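Task 17 of the worksheet. Students: predict the tertiary structure of the chain below and write it out as structure tokens. Keep your answer in the requested format; marks are given for formatting as well as content.
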Amino acid sequence: MNFTLFVTALLTGLGFVGLVTVLAKLLAPRSFNAQKEDPFECGIPTRGRSWMQFRVGYYLFAILFLMFDVETMFLFPWAVVMNSMGTAALLSVVFFLFILVLGLAYAWKKGALEWQ
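Model answer:
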């Protein structure tokens, strides 16, 4: 019984996504011109090749920023309910911050935060 409900929900979801995608392709207004195919950034046309290889340090720095940014966002719900949760919440936040600081120390030691 549960498997039938799961398959029904899965097929309904996939069908809905497919239907909405087809309807969007059929009903959306379109205009074709050469300018739409040009890659640009901030309204300024590119000079030279628009595809170029970036150093891996940029990606590593961005991933570290996102990782610590998202982990910091987890602190907000804890701060909101800290008084009602008591010591257990405090210990979990301390453990979470300890893991976060360990990750930061590891990234710092590996030189991931150096901008060269």
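Marker's comment: The mean pLDDT is 83. The longest strand covers residues 40-41.
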